[in-house]
Every structure is written in C-alpha cells, then in structure tokens.
C-alpha cells in the first residue's frame, strides 16, 4: 500500500530551535494514525508541514505522493482540522457551508447539510457563539464534506468534555468507514487514541521515537518482571525501553521480535498507553543525562 | 440486528470481543442464517473504534465459515454454531465434572486447578505438533 | 473565493455605501443652487479684468452651507484613503492571522496565493472605486467653485487655493485613487508584518500620514520640470523679510515652485535694497524725489523677479505622474504581501 505521509529527514526550525528534527516516517494508507507526544514535542509542526501551512527547513515530505498544498488538486485530497477548531466568528453555520461549497471543487452539499441537521445545529447561528463541541463538529463537517482521501486533525478533542469527545470520535470513525479515509490525528491523551488508532507514532523532543502498526507494537513490546538484575545482561535483539528497580525486583519494558525464553522473567502484555509513556520517559531520561553530561564536561 | 459493546478494560483485543459477541449471538439464536451483521460504519459510529477492527473481526468470522461478505451490500450469516454439539459432548462433560470433584477433594484451589489444566493442555498440544 | 471575500467585506462595503450615499444626498441637495449661482454670475463669458471681480462677487454670494460642504468634501476625500487603509487594509490579513482562521482558509481548495489575490483585488478595487466615486461626485458639485477660483485673484482666503495647492491637488483629479491603492496595500503589508490588526492600523496611519506630508513638501515639486520666467518686480511680495512672488503675471493658476528677486546684474537678492527700504508716504517735499514704494523703487533700479513655476497645462501630467508613483508603490506593497506570506513563515 502506498504511504499517505512519507517524510525523509524532515526538519523545521524556529530561529535557533528545531521544532522537528530528523523525522523519517512512512505512514501507510487506510489506517487511523495516532500521533502522540507531550506538548511542544513537534506534533503540530509535523501536521502543519503535512498540510502545507509550513515549509520544511530540512528534508522532504510527501503527502499522498504530492507536495503539500502545491495546488488545488493536492489541497482537495487532504482535509485539515486545526487545534481548537478555528471558525469565522462572524459567519453563521450556513455561511460556513457556503464557504466550503465555494472553496472546494468536490463538495458534498447533501452530506454537509445532513450532518448539520443530524447534529441539531441552527444554520443561522453565528459560529462565534457555538460551544467547543459544536465548533469541532462544524469544522469536522467542513473537512469531511470536501471528500478528501486523507484527514488530518490536530488535537481535535483536547478541549472537549467527555460526551462531546465521544460523539466527535464516533462521527469521525463513521466518516472514515464510509468514505474509506485515511486519518491522522494527534493527541496528548493516549486513552482516546487507543480506541480508534491502528497505527501509532510517538513524538518526543522533536523526534520520532517509535512508529508502527498498533498490533505489531503490542506484539513486540513486553513487560518483564523478575529478580533484580542488570538490564545489560539481556541477550542481543532485546531493546530495553524503560527500566525500574527496587532492591529486590527489576521491571523492564522491552522491545523484541522474538520470544523471551529466559524463565527468570515473567512476561506480560503491555497496554498502548504504557508503551507510549515508556518511550516518552525514555526521551526525558536521555535528555537529562545529556544535559548533565554537558554540565560535567563544562566543569 | 445485534448491537456490539466493548469492554475497554478486559484486556481482550477489541476485534476478539466482537467475534465472541457474534458467536454468542449465534449460539443464543439471536442471529440466524441469512441475517445481516451490522454495517461497519454503524458499528464504528456506535463504539467509536477503528473500522479496521470491525473488518478484521468480520474477516476472521468469514474465515471460520460463519459469515460471508457481499461487496456493496453487507456481511451475512452463512453458518451456524451448532448448540446441539454441546449436547453431543455430554459424556465428556460428565467426565470433566467428576475429575473436578476429585481435584477439589485432593485439596486444589481454583487457581491450582486452572494451572494444572493449562500446563497439561499445553504440553499435550506440543506433543501433538511434534 | 470571490464569495468568501465579498462575505467578509460585506459589512465594510455597506458602511462605505451608506456614507457615500449620505454625502451624495447632501451634494444633490445643494448642487443645483450652486450651479444656478454660477450661471447667473457674470463669470461665464467674462473677459480680462472683468473676471476677477465677477468671481469675487460669486464667492460672496455663496451660502454658509455651500462653504461647509466644500470643506467637508475636501476633508472626506483627503481622509478616505487613510480610513480605507486602516479599516480595510490593515485587518485584511492581520485578522485572519490573529484569529487563526487561516488554518481553515488555506486548507480548503484554494492556494494561499489565490486567496490573497482575490482578497486584494476585490477589496483594493472597491477601495479605489469608493474613493474615486467620492472624488467624482464632489468634483461635479464643486466645478462652479473650481472654475471661479481659477479666475479670482485675492478673493476670500478660502477660495484662493488654486489647483496646485497641496489640499486641492490631493483631493481633485485622480490622485485620490492612487492614495487609496497605496493606503490599502500599505495596511495589508503592515498586517502581514505585525500579524495583529491593531498595531497594523497604527503603523498604516503613521506611514500614510508621513507620505501625505512628504509628497507635497518634498517630492511633488520635483515631479515635473518647471518653466522659468523673469517678471517685473511688481510680482514680488515681501514675506517674512524675503521677496517671493505670489502669482505669475498672466498665469493666475500656475503653481510657483520658487521665486527669487534679481538685482540688475542678475544676482539673486533676498531683501529690499537699502535705498528703497524707506516707506512711502513721507509727505513729498518740494524739490525732493517723489516718494516711491519700495517696489517702484526697485523697478526703477532694474530689479526683476525670477520665477520657477508649473503652468496649468502641466496639471494633468503632474496628476498622472503622482498617481503612477502611488500605484507603483501599491503594487510593490502588494507583491511584498505575497512574498512575505510564503510558506516559510506563519
């Protein structure tokens, strides 16, 4: 299957800081992709690069085989929902649908109006007076009704209450099923992503830490617990992601393609949230270690 | 039309849960041959889960011969889970009940019984493969 | 995209239309009266020395309301480009960036370039159109006064402002169109730079005002090569201790760029020479020289006045040149907005 997003050494810099560095991804089509990471990790930067709101400072990115925002054709294939669902406060809901109709070539007016009706939204209401959940739903309507191949959403449910969040995800999944969309959504709440994503990308400290199908990740990551020992004693091919020790016990989260045969370890499954958290804390530990090293060198 | 539900905390993969629920419905007679399974988009709209999860479940059910997908129309039940087969294995069931009574008399608690059964079952399967 | 541009611009358009309509009604109410005053005055078909008094009579007959409307019109036309620049130009892009709606606008089906092009074109043309419409209807209303000003000399101060005076030049002809384009694109560019509407508005006002002061003072005089003439010293007037001409003989409408008194040897002088300085009116003493005004004295001694001026025939070339300059600036500012909005930024 072709890649919906193909990035090679992608980087973006703001003055001195690299908001995204050395990003190499090949995200397959037909998936719901979760992009997870702490705030400031570079999620918004990556998504903005994918829709052409930003241009790379290093490396390349191709979306659906084309350069982001290169022309009307490319723009038509990708739908975008920015953080906090910005809408025109002075325009009504119906105006927004007209906006969609005029600015898009392949606009499905029936779908758009049907959704507005089903969501019980007043077409004459000014978008500035809508609730957060309604704004998100309006923005989703605009993104879906242009019939894209790929839908990119930047933290779409971050500021929504649980009911609005659930309804939004329900509608998103329904549209993904019906239109055979590929979806990429970012969040710092992993619990939401666990239900809907079948491909995960973990972004921490401007870099991609792990990326792959959820099934593969869950199958290749294990939690090992056993008597206290040095993680370096593990055989090659077993990568330790995170480790914690008490005086008598060692718990490791490892990544390995084969089984762990050493009987001293009790092997158990890892949930997606724990997996992602392990990678995030690994990055933090590495950064702190690097910083300390710098300080020591300076002495 | 049956409706699915999901237990997010059960530790069982979502697609497995869907498969179990279809098989359960078949056993109980809620689903019969020729009935349509809920459309993928309706399942995901209700549960807010990934469409591929539902597709995977339906594919595995098709592989087991229980359903068949008709492109553009839906997925329909084609096979049955014969509830009667449970009755056919009544002798085995009675033997198992007797063995369980013996295990309790020997002083084994629930977890030990389960562990004994699981390890015996596994080693027996490995012998079969070998 | 045209629909969206219009929909966002709608409120501002209606405000402008309402203001224009209100002013037009005012002009329509007072215009016929003014026109009839003109036709019944003796200005039409006047010859030579009869024209100035006829013009002055006309001026004296003007009602107070006419004068108010005359000034109001000039004021509106001078201020309109600034208002357009601040309220139409500055928020055009800045608001979109400020409220983050660009995330919506630039990910539909139109590219950033198309988006900006349509917005600039639609609102820019509207800006120029409104200003020019204002200028035209006012020009029609004020034509009797304009014609009379051309003839009158030393009329009421208000009406001695000729076509080339800073205020009149900037509010008549086609210069308002250039100013409007410039102010609008200036606002847009400021908005792209500051990304906030309020600072953009302030910057636009500051720069536009500076340009409107700099142009008549420093630039306009150099836009057209002046004609030169040497006139009799009677054309000069002593103003703050130097001798400058206030009118070119025979060309009451001309614009004086500079003037300088010349002594008989042809050298420039700036003060009344010593021998001529004594004021007249000393009662003539028998046998002495008859009292001469300083001017007569200087004339007798052979002093002349050198004048650099722009004749009326150069009025329209000057209008076109100035308008072209502002239109060129507007195009440069528009190009800057396109360039700056390139994807590297945001």
The whole-angstrom Rg of chain A is: 22 Å
Biggest beta-sheet profile of chain A: 6 strands, mixed
Terminal CA distance of chain A reads: 53 Å
Fraction of residues in H or I helices of chain A? 25-40%
Reported CATH architecture of the largest domain in chain A? 3-Layer(aba) Sandwich
> Could you please say which CATH topology of the largest domain in chain A applies here?
Rossmann fold
Low-confidence stretches of chain C: 281-288
- Poorly predicted residue ranges of chain A: none
Overall number of domains of chain C: 2
Report the principal-axis shape of chain C. Answer: elongated
Backbone CA Rg of chain C:
26 Å
Largest sheet features of chain C = 4 strands, antiparallel
- Hey, roughly how much beta strand do the residues of chain C contain? 5-15%
Can you list the strand order of the major beta sheet of chain C? 1-6-4-5
Distance between the termini of chain C: 21 Å
CATH superfamily of the largest domain in chain A: P-loop containing nucleotide triphosphate hydrolases
What is shown here, in short?
The complex is a heterotrimer of chains A (299), B (130) and C (346). Chain A is of the alpha/beta class. In chain A, 36% of the residues lie in helices and 30% in strands.
Note down, in words, how this protein is organized.
The complex is a heterotrimer of chains A (299), B (130) and C (346). Chain A is α/β, with parallel strands linked by helices and 299 residues long. Chain A folds into two domains: 3-205, Rossmann fold (3-Layer(aba) Sandwich); 216-298, no CATH class. Chain A is 36% helix and 30% strand. Chain A has helices at residues 43-51, 72-77, 93-103, 109-118, 132-145, 162-179, 190-196, 214-220, 272-298; strands spanning 3-14, 17-28, 32-36, 58-63, 78-81, 150-154, 182-187, 199-204, 207-213, 221-227, 238-245, 249-256, 266-269. In chain A, helix 6 links the parallel strand 6 (150-154) and strand 7. Chain A starts with a strand and ends with a helix. Chain B is built from six helices and two strands, in the order αααββααα. Chain B has helices at residues 14-28, 40-47, 51-63, 84-88, 90-105, 110-129; strands at residues 67-70, 74-77. The mean pLDDT of chain B is 86. Chain B is elongated and about 55 Å long. Chain B folds into two domains: 14-77, Arc Repressor Mutant, subunit A (Orthogonal Bundle); 89-129, no CATH class. In chain B, a hairpin with a 3-residue loop joins strand 1 and strand 2. Chain C has two domains: 2-222 and 314-340, no CATH class; 227-276 and 292-310, no CATH class. Chain C has helices at 2-40, 51-61, 64-98, 102-105, 112-151, 166-171, 175-194, 197-219, 294-301, 315-340, and strands spanning 227-232, 236-239, 242-245, 255-262, 268-269, 304-310. Chain C has a four-stranded antiparallel β-sheet, with no helix packed on it. The chains are: A alpha/beta (299), B mainly alpha (130), C alpha+beta (346). The A-C interface holds A 48, 51-55, 69, 71-72, 75-76, 78-80, 82, 84, 86-91, 95, 98-100, 102-105, 139, 142, 146 and C 1-4, 7-8, 99-112, 114, 342-344, 346.
């Amino acid at each position: 299957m072709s890649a919906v997003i193909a990035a090679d050494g992608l980087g973006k810099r703001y003055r001195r800081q690299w908001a995204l560095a050395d990003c190499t991804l090949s995200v397959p089509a037909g998936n719901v992709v979760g992009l997870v990471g702490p705030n400031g990790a570079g999620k918004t930067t990556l998504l903005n690069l994918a829709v052409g709101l930003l241009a790379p400072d290093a490396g390349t990115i191709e979306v659906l085989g084309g350069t982001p925002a290169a022309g009307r054709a490319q723009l038509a294939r990708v739908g975008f929902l920015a953080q906090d669902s910005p809408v025109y406060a002075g325009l009504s809901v119906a105006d927004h649908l007209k906006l969609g109709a005029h600015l898009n070539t392949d606009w499905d007016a029936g779908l758009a109006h049907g959704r507005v009706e089903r969501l019980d939204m007043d077409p004459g209401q000014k978008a500035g007076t809508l609730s957060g959940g309604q704004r998100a739903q309006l923005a989703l309507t605009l993104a879906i009704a242009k019939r894209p191949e790929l839908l990119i959403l930047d933290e779409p449910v971050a500021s929504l209450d649980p009911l609005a969040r659930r309804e939004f995800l329900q509608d998103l999944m329904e549209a993904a099923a019906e239109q055979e969309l590929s979806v990429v959504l970012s969040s710092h709440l992993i619990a939401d992503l666990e239900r809907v994503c079948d491909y995960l990308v973990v972004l921490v400290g401007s870099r991609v830490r792990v990326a792959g199908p959820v099934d593969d990740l869950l199958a290749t990551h294990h939690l090992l617990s056993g008597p206290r020992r040095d993680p370096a004693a593990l055989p090659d091919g077993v990568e330790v992601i995170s480790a914690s020790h008490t005086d008598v016990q060692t718990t490791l989260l490892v990544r390995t393609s084969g089984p762990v045969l050493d009987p001293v370890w009790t092997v158990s499954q890892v949930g997606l949230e724990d997996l992602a958290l392990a990678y995030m804390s690994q990055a933090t530990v590495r950064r702190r270690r690097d910083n300390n090293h710098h300080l020591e060198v300076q002495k | 039309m049956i409706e699915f539900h999901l237990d997010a905390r059960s530790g069982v993969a979502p697609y497995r849960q869907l498969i179990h629920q279809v098989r359960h419905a078949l056993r109980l007679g809620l689903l019969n041959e020729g009935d349509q399974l809920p459309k993928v988009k309706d399942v995901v709209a209700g549960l807010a889960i990934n469409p591929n999860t539902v597709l995977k479940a339906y594919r595995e059910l098709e592989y087991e011969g229980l359903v068949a997908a008709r492109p553009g129309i839906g997925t329909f039940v084609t096979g049955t889970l014969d509830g009667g087969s449970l009755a056919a294995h009544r002798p085995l069931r009675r033997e198992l009940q007797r063995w369980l009574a013996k295990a309790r008399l020997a002083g084994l608690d629930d977890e030990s019984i389960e562990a004994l059964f699981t390890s015996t079952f596994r080693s027996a399967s490995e012998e079969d493969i070998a | 995209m045209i629909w969206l541009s219009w929909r966002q611009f709608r409120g501002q358009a209606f405000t402008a239309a309402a203001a224009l309509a209100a002013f037009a009604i005012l002009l329509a109410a007072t215009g016929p009266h003014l026109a009839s005053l003109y036709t019944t005055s003796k200005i039409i078909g006047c010859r030579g020395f009869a024209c100035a008094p006829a013009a002055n009579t006309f001026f004296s007959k003007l009602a107070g309301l006419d004068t108010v409307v005359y000034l109001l019109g000039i004021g509106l036309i001078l201020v309109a480009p600034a208002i357009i620049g601040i309220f139409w130009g500055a928020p055009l892009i800045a608001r979109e960036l400020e409220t983050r709606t660009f995330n919506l606008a630039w990910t539909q089906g139109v590219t950033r370039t198309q988006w900006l092009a349509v917005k600039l074109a639609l609102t820019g043309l509207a800006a120029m159109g409104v200003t020019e419409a204002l200028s035209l209807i006012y020009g029609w209303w004020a034509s009797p006064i304009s014609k009379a000003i051309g003839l009158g000399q030393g009329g009421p101060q208000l009406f001695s402002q000729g076509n080339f005076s800073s205020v009149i030049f900037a509010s008549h002809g086609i210069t308002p169109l250039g100013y409007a384009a410039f102010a609008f694109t200036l606002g847009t560019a400021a908005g792209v730079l500051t990304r906030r509407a309020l600072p953009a508005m302030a910057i636009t006002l500051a720069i536009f005002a500076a340009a409107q002061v700099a142009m008549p003072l420093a630039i306009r005089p150099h836009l057209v090569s002046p004609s030169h003439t040497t006139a009799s010293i009677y054309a000069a007037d002593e103003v703050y201790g130097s001798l400058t001409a206030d009118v070119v003989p025979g060309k009451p409408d001309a614009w004086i760029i500079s003037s300088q008194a010349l002594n008989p040897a042809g050298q420039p002088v700036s003060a009344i020479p010593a021998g001529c300085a004594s004021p007249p009116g000393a009662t003539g003493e028998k046998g002495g020289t008859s009292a001469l005004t300083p001017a007569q004295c200087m004339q007798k001694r052979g002093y002349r006045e050198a004048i650099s001026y722009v004749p009326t025939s150069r009025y329209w070339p000057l209008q076109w040149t100035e308008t072209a300059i502002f239109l060129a600036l507007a195009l440069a500012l528009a190009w800057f907005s396109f360039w700056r909005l390139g994807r590297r930024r945001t």
